[in-house]
């Protein structure tokens, strides 16, 4: 059957946090035609290589189509009863903190909301964390320290309207390609200058006016140097300073820091400071290179300090901008999907906030303290404190730091449930119970992208086999655990209305996330909902935050945080002399569950590799295409060598994506130390240390 005559459906790309709108048309044979939505404010019709190949990833070859218990097919009733009864029995015997959910930025907001409500309102633990912990937790913590709430001040429009865009720890060209296309368009039309700050020469450098290959982890020193220069050159915005606390302390601390530890050429450093201070419209985009660090929160605040001191925030073409890795990392933040947050940007450790949520939910048990963040959660699985674990749409046996230890911990956990679209992940293979969930093109709900725009994701394909939506699976388990009324949802629109209503209560506590104008949205309007940037209230929709100098701390002011550069957690030694940088490729996504299904995407860089500087390759007698073994105390990986000056001497780069039994030796997170930022709990995935040696000649 030809699908050409069928209508197109508006939905959202399920990969990165740009959140591009897509138009989908079922082809009538189980496949999809996909094109960019010309009316979506994130992409205006553009798509990147991954988005445009979405139609190649919806086949059913690897799908999980029925529940499984201990590997054998089971019916839903048996599987759901087993999950609910085992969680109940575990809680009864060992207490609520003996169970945990590890969820994902792939979840839709409605799914996320139900998972968070079940754990924090009815199980009575805060042991729910998300793979977004590995992605943007440092940004959340930095925002809260500076602004009082986790608020992204600007919008994508600011990239179009900036005169200088600084990319810090962000290979925007490959990881957020449509935003990079918007940046290149701005460069073309208004001459926007581009500075890339990254130890590695990435694809984003090809169009940069300046590349600063700073020493790994030295971002705080770089931005402290900028803040000191802002002060020394009289570039502090004196009017805006009346809205700030901590300015003098931050400047004094910045002056005492030493920008030479960046290892940068002083002329380049000076050129950067001249450009930044001399350009009014500056957007500083940052991503994993900033966040994935044991001083990630301090790095974020070092950047925010510079924008606050100059008042370059919340106005056209200005602002710090954290871009999220996952499609719904922001939605997860909104529902309190992190172990230290409550729904709607309320604080778990604030008694008034807790009381309001308890009343609204009719909660039967609420924790009063934070739960286990991702790395600590899997430590607790390993040492037996967590005895029942539910993992939803993520693959921690590959993607967590110290991945071999995490894999062993999951294997030894007394009871592990995995909800996913496939049984073919390293994590799913370890599950006691496997629950088949609907996939991206079969799901209904909403996601929020990096600039706070909420967009509908709509189902265009039928759920295959016995797959069910995540919100439905979670609510069903909640009902079977005895919480029938609280989880009596008929559809995602009901959940969305509840979330929107709670956001109005949160706004009463001075929280930023407010979509209360949508609390009465009808099923029909929800079905037809068009992209909207929050806040969405009776008084305002969307726009920027903070141009007026009104922040969310109790005194209404922002806080500059005095931060000092710190050393990396892993120190190079004779046994592990190389700094290992990890990251994404243009055409793969996470552990390749979907993108590997596309022949076109898999053809870009078809096998795992490690980039090594020519001088190091010569010392180690490694030639192009040789197999190289990387080792450290955590694990090993065997990868194909690429000799490249894109990495600095003494540094290596390897992509994160490869997985599976046959490619076990390419699981790069097996080498990542589980060292975390003390504030955000985000691991330092960007700067471990390893030894390298030739394993086999090409
Ligand atoms: Fe999808 Fe991100 Fe590419 Fe847009 S930029 S099409 S959201 S992967």
Briefly say what this structure is.
With 698 residues, the chain is an alpha/beta fold. The strands form six sheets. Strands 5-4-16-15-14-6-7 form a seven-stranded mixed β-sheet, sandwiched between helices. Strands 21-25-22-24-23-26 form a six-stranded mixed beta barrel.
Please give a structural write-up.
One of its GO terms (cellular component) is oxidoreductase complex. GO terms for molecular function: 4 iron, 4 sulfur cluster binding; metal ion binding; molybdopterin cofactor binding; oxidoreductase activity. Residues 6-62 form the 4Fe-4S Mo/W bis-MGD-type domain. This is Assimilatory nitrate reductase (NADH) alpha subunit apoprotein. This protein has 698 residues and is an alpha/beta fold. The protein has 22 helices and 26 strands. Helix 3 crosses helix 19 (492-507) and helix 8 packs across helix 9 (247-256). It starts with 8 loop residues before the first strand and ends with a strand. Bound molecules: iron/sulfur cluster. Iron/sulfur cluster binds next to helix 1 and helix 7.
The main pleated sheet reads as: 7 strands, mixed
Sequence stretches where pLDDT stays below 50 over 5 or more residues: none
What's the number of structural domains?
A: 4
Count every beta strand, where a strand is a DSSP E run of 2 or more residues.
26
CATH class of the largest domain: Alpha Beta
Taking the alpha carbons of the first and last residues, their distance comes to 48 Å
Helix-residue proportion: 25-40%
């Amino acid at each position: 059957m030809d699908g050409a005559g069928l209508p197109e459906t508006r939905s959202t790309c399920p990969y990165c946090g740009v959140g591009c709108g897509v138009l989908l048309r079922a082809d009538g044979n189980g496949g999809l035609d996909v094109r960019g939505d010309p009316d979506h404010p994130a992409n205006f019709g553009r798509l990147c290589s991954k988005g445009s190949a979405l139609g190649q990833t919806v086949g059913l070859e690897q799908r999980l189509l029925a529940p499984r218990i201990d590997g054998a097919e089971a019916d839903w009733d048996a599987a759901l009863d087993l999950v609910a009864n085992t969680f109940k029995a575990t809680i009864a015997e060992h207490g609520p903190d003996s169970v945990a959910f590890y969820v994902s930025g792939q979840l839709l907001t409605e799914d996320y909301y139900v998972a968070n409500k079940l754990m924090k309102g009815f199980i009575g633990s805060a042991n729910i964390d998300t793979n977004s912990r590995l992605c943007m937790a440092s940004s959340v913590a930095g925002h809260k320290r500076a602004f009082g709430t986790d608020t992204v001040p600007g919008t994508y429009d600011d990239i179009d309207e900036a005169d200088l865009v600084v990319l810090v720890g962000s290979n925007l060209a490959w990881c957020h390609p449509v935003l990079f296309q918007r940046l290149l368009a701005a460069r073309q039309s208004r001459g926007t200058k581009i500075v890339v700050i990254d130890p590695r020469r990435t694809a984003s450098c090809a169009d940069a006016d300046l590349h600063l290959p700073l020493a790994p982890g030295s971002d705080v020193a770089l931005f402290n140097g900028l803040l000191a220069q802002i002060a020394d050159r009289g570039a502090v915005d004196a009017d805006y300073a009346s809205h700030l606390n901590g300015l003098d302390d931050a400047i004094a601390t910045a002056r005492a820091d030493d920008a030479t530890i960046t290892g940068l050429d002083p002329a380049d450093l000076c050129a950067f400071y001249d450009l930044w201070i001399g350009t009014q419209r500056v957007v500083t985009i940052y991503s994993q290179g900033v966040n994935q660090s044991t001083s990630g929160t301090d790095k974020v605040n070092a950047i925010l300090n510079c924008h606050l001191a100059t008042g370059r925030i919340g106005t056209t073409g200005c602002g710090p901008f954290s871009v999220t890795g996952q499609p719904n990392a922001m939605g997860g933040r909104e529902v309190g999907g992190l172990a230290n947050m409550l729904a709607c940007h309320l604080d778990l450790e604030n008694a008034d906030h807790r009381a309001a949520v308890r009343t609204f939910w009719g909660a039967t048990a609420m924790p009063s303290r934070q739960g286990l963040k991702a790395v600590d959660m899997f430590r607790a699985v390993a040492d037996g404190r967590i005895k029942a674990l539910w993992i939803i749409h993520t693959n921690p046996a590959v993607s967590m730091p110290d991945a071999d230890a995490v894999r062993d911990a999951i294997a030894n956990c007394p009871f592990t449930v995995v909800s996913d679209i496939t049984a073919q992940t390293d994590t799913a293979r370890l599950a006691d119970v496997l629950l088949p969930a609907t996939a991206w093109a079969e799901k209904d709900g909403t996601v929020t992208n990096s600039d706070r725009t909420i967009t509908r994701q709509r189902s265009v394909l039928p759920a295959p086999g016995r797959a069910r939506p995540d919100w439905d699976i979670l609510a069903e388990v909640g009902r079977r655990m005895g919480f029938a009324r609280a989880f009596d949802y008929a559809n995602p629109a009901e959940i969305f209305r509840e979330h929107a209503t709670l956001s109005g209560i949160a706004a009463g506590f001075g929280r930023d996330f407010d979509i209360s104008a949508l609390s009465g949205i009808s099923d029909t309007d929800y079905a037809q909902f068009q992209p909207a940037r929050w806040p969405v209230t009776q008084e305002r929709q969307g726009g920027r935050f903070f141009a007026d100098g009104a922040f969310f701390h109790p005194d209404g002011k922002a806080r500059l945080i005095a931060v000092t550069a710190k050393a990396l957690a892993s120190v190079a030694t004779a046994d592990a002399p190389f700094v290992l940088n990890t990251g994404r490729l243009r055409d793969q996504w996470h552990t390749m569950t979907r993108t590997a299904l596309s022949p076109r995407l898999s053809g870009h860089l078809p096998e795992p590799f490690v980039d090594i500087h020519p001088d190091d390759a010569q010392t180690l007698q490694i030639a192009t295409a040789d197999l190289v073994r990387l080792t450290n105390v955590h694990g090993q990986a065997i990868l194909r060598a690429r000799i490249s000056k894109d990495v600095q001497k003494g540094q290596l780069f390897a992509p994160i994506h490869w997985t599976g039994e046959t490619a076990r030796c390419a699981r790069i997170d097996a080498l990542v130390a589980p060292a975390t930022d003390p504030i955000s709990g985000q691991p330092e995935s960007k700067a471990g240390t390893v030894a390298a040696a030739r394993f086999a000649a090409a």
